[in-house]
UniProtKB/TrEMBL annotation:
Domain NodB homology: 16-266
Organism: Halostagnicola larsenii XH-48
GO molecular function, one term: hydrolase activity, acting on carbon-nitrogen (but not peptide) bonds
Taxonomic lineage of the native organism: Archaea, Methanobacteriati, Methanobacteriota, Stenosarchaea group, Halobacteria
Origin superkingdom: Archaea
GO biological process, one term: carbohydrate metabolic process
Protein's name according to its UniProt entry: NodB homology domain-containing protein
InterPro entries: Glyco_hydro/deAcase_b/a-brl, NODB_dom, PgdA-like
UniProt xrefs under Pfam families: Polysacc_deac_1
């Protein structure tokens, strides 16, 4: 078994991130950045992974699947994992009801089944947001793993439900479920440091890119040296990382990772399945 695992996770939001996360239906210049991710960024990334024979996982909103079918079919044909990222790109806590949130997740499942012929086993919530209902909905719909919650950095674990955070009493963590968490991190995400927006809720971008890629490399090296069997989830967006000046930096980072002894690149579903087999939920 590998001593360390890398999961490259692409959140292929395309136009959806601008329609819902930024409430920008009437701004075609923003939409065009999502189109860039589908038409330019995605082919570049698929070529990069093909050249180095590296698997990846693409978390794709149903809106993207239905809006850019050719790009999504190319991802599926290349053998990469395709998993759930909502139908819209609305944060789960923004829904007016449990029923509305569940309906969106079910619609996203339908889009993935239409593309791949299989139900997704994993979920990454838009903006890494959970409502009070999200975990129960995922359990009801048969999801096996998630990548949204940050209670660890490099260690898979089982998500908990029934937590409580009373203002006048200690925090209660709740009880483990049988959904495996493959923890992401805002520290390993390209959107916050590299994406500029003119107005709220975010104003960002223009970060020293060499510093960010060095940080990602340093985190990987630390994991390899200190966490036995660690899992490194790197979250990227085609419209961001697919820019010409970043593809070369990403390639250098990936080359550094797979040149290290004992490191494997794997799809997230594979990692979650292996964790479940080695750590059965009933044993928790």
């Amino acid at each position: 078994m590998a001593s360390a695992t890398v999961c490259v996770s692409y959140h292929f939001d395309a136009v959806s991130t601008w329609l819902w996360a930024f409430d920008a239906w009437d701004m075609p210049t923003r939409h065009s950045r999502g189109v860039y991710g589908a038409d330019v960024g995605t082919p570049r990334l698929l070529d990069l992974h093909d050249e180095h024979d590296l698997p990846s996982t693409w978390c794709i909103p149903g809106h993207t699947i239905e809006s850019f079918p050719a790009a999504c079919e190319a991802i599926a044909d290349a053998g990469h994992g395709i998993q759930h990222h909502g139908w819209t790109h609305r944060g789960p806590s923004s829904y007016e009801s449990r029923e509305a949130e569940r309906a969106d997740i079910e619609r996203g499942i339908e889009s993935i089944v239409a593309l791949t012929g299989e139900r997704p086993t994993g979920y990454a919530s838009p903006a890494w947001d959970f409502s009070e209902h999200t975990l129960d909905i995922l359990l009801e719909l048969g999801f096996e793993w998630d990548s949204s919650v940050m209670a660890a950095d490099f260690t898979p674990h089982y998500l908990r439900r029934g937590w409580r955070a009373p203002a006048d009493a200690p925090y209660e963590r709740g009880e483990p479920t049988d959904i495996v968490e493959l923890p992401p991190s805002w520290e390993r995400d390209d959107f916050p440091p590299f994406t500029y927006t003119w107005a709220g809720p975010h104003r960002m971008g223009y970060t020293d890119e060499e510093m960010i890629f060095r940080k990602w490399r340093d985190q990987f090296d630390w994991m390899c040296e200190h966490v036995d069997g660690g899992v490194y989830v790197l979250t990227l967006h085609p419209q961001v990382i697919g820019q010409a000046h970043r593809i070369g930096r990403l390639e250098e980072l990936l080359e550094h990772m797979y040149s290290r002894d004992g490191v494997e690149f794997e799809r997230m579903a594979t990692v979650a399945k292996r964790f479940r087999e080695q750590n059965p939920p009933e044993a928790q």
